[in-house]
Write a structure and sequence with these properties.
It contains no helices and 17 strands. Strands 4, 5, 7, 8, 9 and 10 form a six-stranded antiparallel sheet that branches. A four-stranded antiparallel sheet has the order 1-15-12-11, with no helix packed on it. About 0% of the residues lie in helices and about 55% in strands. It is mostly beta strands.
């Protein structure tokens, strides 16, 4: 049976960086041209980006990593895809956005507006060993936060949280092990961050 340690939790009032409207954070996609089954788009306000295409069954059919200090321009020739619905997923350090691709006959159409956006949790440690956690949960999906020690034993498990903005500070000095991992699950995604107290 896993031991649950009691932590002192302090609710942070707000971190201003996460109070921005979703459309102003990180990157945006602009469809530049669609011709036949070729779609051209640009991603702005970006640096490193993972671009992937999934089919309707969420099977990965293409992926690439782009690293650019400037806007990213891409043209995808989708002529090898049969008719159907596909998804372009753009993932940066801050968020994961999905865009719908419709392939009908000899044409392909890419939606300019994201059909879903997940903002990645922001987790950082200050010099006193306090860990701040910030999650922008736009659609109020259930969020679960766990902390595991270096033996993967659970030392903290939150109740399901459904706030739109989740800000917490954890005093992790009570963890006996030097290494601990935050596991944050929401919107069908799991994010992990490991820290070393030494």
């Amino acid at each position: 049976m896993k031991n649950i340690l009691k932590f002192s939790l302090v609710l942070v009032v707000a971190l201003t960086s996460m109070n921005l409207h979703a459309s102003t954070i990180d990157f945006t996609l602009n469809v530049k041209k669609e011709q036949g089954k070729m779609v051209t788009f640009a991603l702005n306000m970006t640096n490193k980006m993972d671009l992937s295409i999934y089919d309707a069954n969420d099977k990965l059919i293409y992926s690439e990593i782009v690293d650019s200090k400037k806007n990213i321009d891409r043209t995808y020739d989708l002529k090898a895809l049969p008719e159907g619905t596909y998804f372009l997923q753009a993932e940066s350090e801050m968020k994961i956005s999905r865009y719908k691709i419709s392939v009908v006959g000899a044409t392909a159409t890419l939606s300019e507006n994201a059909i879903s956006e997940i903002f990645k949790p922001v987790v950082f440690v200050d010099k006193y060993g306090m860990v701040a956690l910030n999650i922008l949960n736009i659609d109020r999906s259930p969020v679960n936060i766990k902390i595991l020690d270096d033996q993967d034993s659970e030392v903290y498990n939150s109740a399901m949280l459904t706030d739109q903005t989740i800000n917490k500070i954890f005093d992790v000095k009570n963890i006996k092990n030097d290494i601990y991992t935050f596991v944050i699950t929401y919107n069908k995604k799991t994010f992990t961050k490991t820290f070393n107290q030494r």
